[in-house]
Amino acid sequence: MSAPLLQTHQLGKVFGRVIALQDITMELRAGEVLGLLGDNGAGKSTLIKCLSGVHRPSQGQIFIEGNEVLFASPREALKMGIATVYQDLAMVPHLGISRNFVLGNEPTLGWGLLRRLDMAKADRITRAGCSRLGIDLRTTNQPVGTLSGGERQSVAIARAIHFGARILILDEPTSALGVKESANVLRDVAEARDRGVGVILITHNVYHAFEIADRFTILHRGRSYGNFIRNEVTRDEVINMMSGRMTNTAEQQ
């Protein structure tokens, strides 16, 4: 069997005297969704910041396809194919969909002082990237700020995949969404998985996790309760682990 797409071994992070993460070991394979579950303060945000180059781990190792890596910045992580979609989405509300889609990867025309954004190409890139996930855009000029939360999430996911994400980290993508929009975002996650992308879905919504995730890593107060295949653990057991009530299932892992 080939090496996991992403793997951590006894990963830890300390801020002064505060132990934010301790001994986190997990793996993600291509074409699967890993649900990273935990209540508020469990260490989910710290972990994804270590994986995406925002924080440097205090201990442990990170491997990409079996090769150890140490990121000095989010840009280095992005070059290795790790894209993180945070809750704020890093979008400019007053700019159109296509301007946001190519932000940081703008196609241009001309040279030197005459260089300008190639809007026609930006529109084509945006439509192509969104259509791969089955997202049908009425227009690419609509300001992102006028889109619904679910629509913004879908565009952000499509953007990350279009520009080369092999590992997609989603930070609570359905936390502020209704039932219908949550279903649409989870559909996009499934489409990304089907295209061979490894997805880490950070959430405290157990129902959404069970709907889409293949495996779970469960955190509580900076420590891992273990890694579980979906059909080997129940919702109630996961909820108990998230809240710190150890179950027999967790003890056996």
Set down the secondary structure blueprint.
Blueprint: E1 6-15, E2 18-28, E3 33-37, H1 44-51, E4 59-64, E5 67-69, H2 74-79, E6 82-85, H3 97-101, E7 108-109, E8 116-117, H4 119-131, H5 149-162, E9 167-171, H6 179-194, E10 198-203, H7 206-212, E11 215-220, E12 223-229, H8 235-242, H9 248-252
Parallel strand pairs: 3-10, 3-11, 6-9, 9-10
Antiparallel strand pairs: 1-2, 1-4, 4-5, 7-8, 11-12
Number of helices: 9
Helix content: 25-40%
The appropriate CATH architecture is 3-Layer(aba) Sandwich
Strand order, sheet with most strands: 6-9-10-3-11-12
**First-to-last CA distance:** 22 Å
Which strand-content bin applies to the residues?
Answer: 25-35%
Give a short account of the largest sheet. 6 strands, mixed
Top-tier CATH class: Alpha Beta
* CATH superfamily label: P-loop containing nucleotide triphosphate hydrolases
Spatial shape: globular
Q: What Rg do the Cα atoms give?
A: 19 Å
